[in-house]
Structure formats: C-alpha cells, structure tokens
Write a structure and sequence with these properties.
- The complex is a heterodimer.
- Chain A is of the alpha/beta class.
- Helices cover 32% and strands 22% of the residues of chain A.
- In chain A, strand 7 (188-191), helix 6 (200-215) and strand 8 form a beta-alpha-beta unit.
- In chain A, helix 3 (122-128) runs parallel beside helix 5 (170-183) and helix 4 crosses helix 5.
- Chain B folds into 3 domains: 6-285, ABC transporter involved in vitamin B12 uptake, BtuC; 293-365, Arc Repressor Mutant, subunit A (Orthogonal Bundle), CATH 1.10.10; 370-421, Diphtheria Toxin Repressor, domain 2 (Orthogonal Bundle), CATH 1.10.60.
- Chain B is 71% helix and 4% strand.
- Chain B is built from 16 helices and 5 strands.
- Chain B has helices at residues 6-31, 35-56, 61-86, 90-113, 120-125, 145-163, 165-173, 175-180, 185-226, 230-259, 266-284, 290-318, 340-352, 367-389, 399-406, 411-421; strands at 135-138, 141-144, 327-328, 356-359, 362-365.
- In chain B, strand 1 and strand 2 (141-144) form a beta hairpin.
- Classes of the chains: A alpha/beta, B mainly alpha.
- Chain A binds chain B through residues 45, 78, 81-83, 99, 102, 105, 107, 109, 113-115, 118-121, 124-125, 128-129, 131-132, 136-137, 139-140, 164, 180, and chain B through 31, 33, 84, 87, 163-164, 166-167, 169-170, 172-174, 176-177, 179-183, 224, 227-230, 232-233.
- The complex binds adenosine-5'-diphosphate and magnesium ion.
- Adenosine-5'-diphosphate binds at residues 44-45, 49, 67, 69-75 of chain A.
C-alpha cells in the first residue's frame, strides 16, 4: 500500500490526450486504469440519466467532473461505487470488478446526504471510514483509531474531535467527510462537491490536500461546480451531461466551446458561472 | 398503605424486560427516521402469528418467532415494492401495507378462533397482570413464561445490537458509505426489522401492542434529546424504558384508590409514564429543552442590556462639559422592556464583573468599567464606519447591526476593522472613536 505514496511526483509530460469518443464502443480500455467505465447506462425508474458512458480515468490525476445540475455527476460516482444498479455496461477498478477492490476506493458523498443531527462525534464519523478494513462483527483496533486521529490532524479538526457533528459549520462538516476518506488511505478518491458551502479559506486548504493526494500518486475525481476555478484546480476534466461530452487534459479540452456543448449551448460561460455560484449559497 | 406481593414483582420484571427490549432496537428506528415502521410491523405481526399457528397447529414460542421473522421480511419487502412501484413516500407505503396485513390478520384470527384464544383485545392491552398464572420451571424456580420470553428477547437484542454495533451505526448514519464499504444497508435494514418483529411477538402477549409501540418510540425520543453519542443514547433509552415500567406499575397500584377508580391497565399506565417522562425531558433537557432555551434567551438579553448600559454611561461621560461620573438610575435599566429577570440579571452581571458600583441614586462606572465601555464604543463606532463605507448602508441604519456586532468583537477583529477602515478618528455620525487601548 505505502509504496505508491513514495513515488516521484513527476508524471509523463505528455498526457494521454483523446478527443471525445466518436463511437463509445470504439474506446480501447487499459487494464491498468484506476477506473475503467465500459458503456455504462444508468436509469432511475426507466428514465435514463447516464447514457453509454465509456472512458478510462487516468492514474495519478486530479480529475474534475463538470456538468450542469442534474447532469448525472453524482450518479456517475455512485455507479462507480456500485451504489446504483447499472442497466448495461460495467466498471472495473484497476482491471478487476468492484467487489474485489472496495478497499481501494474512498468516497466523499454530498454533504446533504446524511443527517447531521445524528448522535455521533467528529471522531466517530472519521473512524467509520475504517470500518471496511476490519470486516463484519469486528471492532476497530488501536492502529485504526490512531489513523483516524491522524486524518483529523491533516484537515485541522483535532480540536473538534469530540464535538457532536450537529455543532459544526458547513466547512467543518465537509472537512470531517474529507478526513473520513483520508483515513481510508484509498488509491482512488471520489468526491461529490467537496467545496459546496465552504468558506474560501477552507476551500484553499482542501485544494492543497487534493494536490497532496495527487502528488502521492492517488487518483482523485471531484464533482465541481465553480467553472472559474476548474482550470486552476484540475489537470484533467470530464465534461458530462447525460453523456460524456468530452474528457482529457484540462489544457486541451476545457474550452468555451466544449462548455457550451455541456451546458446546452445557450448559456454563456459567465451566466453559467453565475448560476453555479448562486447554487453554492 | 400499598400492599406488595410477588405478583407485583413479576409484573415489574416482565414490564422492565419488555420495555428495555423494545427501546433498544427502537432507538435505531428513531435515528433512521423510521419510527412509523414500528407501528407498521406491530400491525402486520398479527397475520404472522395467526399464519404460523394455522400452519404449525401450536403456539410454542418457536412457532411464533418463525411467524414473526417471515412477517418482518414480508412487511419490509412489501413496503419497498409499494413505495417504488407506486412512487409514493415512505409513510403512505407503510400505511397501505400494514392496514392490508392487519385486515388479513383479523380474518385469519377468526378462522383460528375456533381452536385458540387469540383475543384481539388481549393483543392491544396484553395481560401483564395475569403473567404469574402461566409459569414454567426454570433453574429450580417457577418462573412466569412471559418473563422467560421477554428476558430471552432482551438478551437476543443485546447480542444482536452488540455484535452489529458498528455496522448498524454506519448504515443508519450513512447508508451510501455502508454499501460502498461492503456492509449492505438493505440487508442490515431487514435484520433490524426482523429483530423488531421478533421483539414484538415476545412482548405482545404480556404487555400488548400499545406498550410495545410506546416503548419502541418514546424512551429513545427522550434519550435523543439528551445524548450526543450513540452508546449513551442506547443506555439512556434503556434507562427511561425501565423507569417507565416501574413508575407505570407503581402508579397503577397507587392511583386508582386515590382517584376513585376501580382498576386500571398496568400496560397503559406504563405507556403513560413514558409519555410523562418525555414531557419532563422536553421541558428540562439542557440541550434543546424549552426551559433551557428560554434561559439562554434571558442570558443573551442580559448580556446585551449590560453592554447597552456601559454604552449609555460612556456617552454621557463624553458629552461636552461633563466632569463628574454620570449615574444611571435603576429605572433607566427598564428601557428595552425586556422583563424584570433580564434587568436583574444585567445589573447583577455588571456589579459582579466590577464594571459598575452602586452609589446613591443608581450606578456609576468603575475604572475597569470605563475601559470596557471604551472598548465596546470603539468597536461599535468602527463597525458603523465599516458598514457605511464597505457595505454602503445608510448611516441611520447601522446602529442596530453595530450593537450586535460589537459584543462579539475580539481584539484581532478590532485590529482588522481598524485596518480596513483606515482607523478614522470620527464615526459616520461625527462622534469620536476612542483610540485603541494599549495592552
Ligand atoms: N434516487 C433517484 N431517483 C430518481 N431520480 C433520481 C435519483 N437520483 C437522481 N435522480 C435524477 O437523476 C438525474 C441526475 O441526478 P444527479 O446524478 O444527482 O445529478 P448531478 O449530481 O449532476 O446534479 C436528475 O435528473 C435527478 O433528478
Ligand atoms: Mg450531485
């Protein structure tokens, strides 16, 4: 596990660059890709929300998953995690089915997905990230408790470890979720809007953390809303609106034209940035 | 004088065992916001029991538990199907399923009625008063069957919740992560529902469905108001459940003679006791109790009023031509019409902090009081300046917000404010901003 952490931070200078797949079936998948999504279609109550998504997420990248509200971004993350049934297609994690690779995945759900009045403390929540490592009926060992506390330290929440989670601000709640994922020490992190409702100082520190993860060779996929900061935060983007509009190195594919395709064409960069901002408040 | 007998002891034992046994899984229902599920299952257990009896031809505990397990799963699955198929919300789906199953159960009981005494009345109120009549030998004693049943059920619940403590905690708090980590939240949900159905079957005969439903919901609700962590919440739920059973029986013995009733339902009194305890917690809980909340309001009012007093005294002192220390008459405290408690508390607070001292005719500022007042006024006027300059508010609109902001302004914030406003000498109303104190 630890060997990856020590890898040099340099990556191949030329990113694998692929234009939007013309025919989804035509993509060749690498067996070493952290996440390989093969022709995945997902529907809720027969209403399709993801169509033929077919791509490899490259290793060691900080990937932005961008698209308008209701584009299926959360659904894509859930499909990767096996939390929603896929109608067709499959997902491979480092070439193997999800059921064998759960420990490699760390998940940061949308903050509204849980009840913040639940009677647990910050430390309790962070320890939950480690439950996957002990199995049914087993309790956490001392080593896990230590790892949870280290994760809290990394997000600067040590002082609040014994607080009930209902007494946290939005930014603090987000950091608890982040610490919980960090405690998992996963190879791949899937984060759903980790910047929603956090103040700018917290946002900066979270970005720094994500860069640390990437530099340690981890793959991070992050649903993101603020179009202004995409280029600064992510080195790879997936533009999604039910289908994958395009994906590739940020410098190559994050263009106004692709954004227009993603956001329906009628929206200008400015007005969609404005809606994105408005949604954050 | 109350006459106590071994019958009362057994009633209390059975009451406590079944109350605690219900409250523990009930806490999880409450946390999952599924307390209605307890209601649903309590109704649908009826066809489970009747069906098991009709098929197996006896009413041994094992038969009934099999019926409960089957019906627990059937109810849960049916509710999910109805919810998804009909695209309706949880509560409606439960309502559809449990009323249908309950009706089915009534029909089945009629058919079975020729053979057994499954009495619907008894299902509602139980027969805790009669438990001592039906005993079995256990460890060399004659123990009521109900005590063994409810005791076994409590033990099973403690084992179940203890073994799956972390799994249930995780899947109740964050089912998504639970699934992602390989602990199927749906499977755990079914297990919990089966445990609750079995708990009900064990308790029904003794205490009836009213008490079972009350104990599933009310003690956990008390504990929820008081606790910040899961394990304490479970223990406190158990404590409230036990207390309800004991208090309920004591009042069932003591009250009827006092009130002139003939008799009363022990199980009903236990449920009532739980309700009364909940009322007490609701008013008195330090976290969210009504009393605590109004006390916090009063304290906040007193803090604001005492800051206002310091401000008033300071402004009088800075007026041109004033040399003597101004005095605030006690009746001047009565400005905001906040009530006597707030005024009294504000006065006491100022004296205790040493900011004012009593003099003939009222209060005057002390030396520390003067410093504090100057600090508050400085913060107040800096805020007014900031609100006018940075937020473009009209000068006659900034007094209120500034008064609220001044009381939370610490040293660092004050320096920041002074920097951002350029540390002016005058505020927007052309009054002098006192300079920063040297620390
Ligand atoms: N549990 C669900 N049941 C039915 N429809 C859903 C469910 N979750 C999401 N949807 C629908 O699927 C679409 C995609 O949702 P989502 O993945 O949450 O989008 P995003 O995260 O990009 O905003 C939306 O139209 C949403 O209404
Ligand atoms: Mg979403």
């Amino acid at each position: 596990m630890e060997t990856r952490t020590d890898r040099p931070t340099t990556r191949p200078a030329v990113p694998e660059h692929r234009p939007a797949p013309a025919s989804p079936a035509g993509t060749d998948h690498s067996p070493n890709a952290p996440i390989s999504i093969h022709d995945v279609t997902v529907a809720y109550d027969r209403k399709p929300v993801l169509w033929d998504v077919d791509l490899d997420v490259p290793e060691g990248r900080l990937v932005g998953l961008i698209g308008p509200n209701g584009a299926g971004k959360s659904t894509l993350l859930k499909a990767i995690l096996g939390l929603v049934p896929v109608i067709s297609g499959r997902v491979a994690i480092y070439g193997k089915p999800l059921s064998k690779q759960r420990k490699l995945l760390g998940y940061v759900p949308q903050r509204e997905s849980v009840d913040w009045d639940f009677p647990v403390t910050v430390r309790d929540v962070v320890q939950m990230g480690l439950y996957g490592q002990v199995g049914w009926f087993r309790r956490l060992r001392r080593e896990h408790v230590r790892r949870a506390d280290e994760a809290l330290e990394r997000v600067g929440m040590t002082d609040l470890a014994d607080r009930q989670i209902s007494q946290l601000s939005g930014g603090q709640q987000q950091r608890v979720f982040l610490a919980r994922a960090l405690a998992q020490d996963a190879q791949i992190y899937l984060m759903d809007e980790p910047f929603a409702g956090v103040d700018s100082a917290t946002e900066k520190s979270i970005v720094a953390l994500l860069h640390d993860l990437r530099n340690a060779g981890r793959t991070v996929v992050c649903v993101h809303h603020d179009l202004q900061t995409v280029a600064a935060y992510f080195d790879y983007v997936i533009l999604l609106n039910m289908r994958v509009v395009t994906h590739g190195a940020t410098a190559d594919v994050y263009t106004e034209e692709n954004l227009r395709k993603t956001y329906g064409g009628q929206l200008t960069l400015l007005s969609s940035a404005a809606t994105a901002l408005a949604q954050r408040h | 004088m109350i006459s106590w007998s071994v019958i009362d002891t057994w009633i209390i034992i059975v009451g406590v065992l079944s109350a605690v046994g219900c409250a523990l899984p009930g806490a999880y229902l409450l946390l999952r916001r599924q307390s209605m599920m307890g209601d649903a299952i309590s109704h649908s257990v009826l066809p489970g029991i009747a069906g098991a009896y009709l098929i197996m031809g006896n009413r041994e505990p094992l038969t009934l538990f099999l019926g409960a397990i089957v019906i627990g799963i059937v109810t849960t699955v049916l509710i999910r199907l109805v919810k998804h198929g009909g695209k309706i919300e949880d509560g409606a789906a439960m309502g559809v399923v449990f009323t249908a199953l309950f009706a089915l159960g009534l029909v089945m009981i009629r058919r079975a009625a020729d053979h057994v005494d499954l009495d619907p009345d008894c299902v509602l109120y139980g027969a805790i008063e009669l438990t001592f009549l039906d005993t079995v030998p256990f460890l060399g004693m004659d123990v009521p069957r109900a005590a063994l049943l409810t005791g076994g059920m409590l033990l099973a619940n403690v084992l179940f919740l203890g073994l799956l403590y972390k799994e249930l905690k995780l899947s109740s708090f964050d089912p998504g992560l639970s699934d992602a980590l390989g602990y199927s939240s749906r499977f755990l949900h079914h297990l919990l529902m089966v445990a609750i159905a079995a708990t009900m079957v064990a308790s029904f005969e003794a205490v009836g469905s009213i008490l079972v439903i009350a104990m599933l919901i009310v003690p956990p609700a008390c504990a929820y108001l008081l606790c910040n962590r899961l394990l304490p919440m479970l223990l406190v739920s158990a404590g409230f459940a036990a207390a309800s059973a004991v208090l309920g029986h004591l009042s069932a013995i003591a009250l009827p003679p006092v009130l002139g009733y003939e008799d009363t339902s022990t199980a009903g009194m236990m449920a009532l006791a739980a309700g009364v305890l909940f009322g007490g917690v609701f008013f008195l809980s330090p976290k969210s109790g009504v009393l605590a909340q109004s006390w916090r309001r009063v304290r906040l009012g007193a803090q604001l009023l005492s800051e206002e007093v310091l401000g008033v005294l300071y402004r009088r002192q800075e007026a041109p031509g004033v040399s003597a220390r101004p005095v605030l008459a006690p009746e001047e405290l009565r400005r905001g019409a906040q009530g006597r408690t707030v005024e009294w508390l504000a006065g006491r607070r100022l004296v205790r902090q040493g900011y004012v001292r009593p003099v003939p005719g009222g209060f005057e500022l002390t030396e520390p009081g003067l410093h504090e007042a100057r600090r508050l006024i400085r913060a107040h006027r800096l805020w007014e300046t900031w609100l006018v300059e940075e937020m473009n508010l009209r000068p006659d609109h900034v007094h209120g917000p500034a008064s609220r902001l001044e009381s939370v302004t610490g040293e660092a914030m004050e320096e920041e404010l002074a920097r951002e406003t350029g540390a002016p000498a005058m505020d927007p109303h052309a009054r002098r901003i006192p300079p920063a104190e040297k620390h």
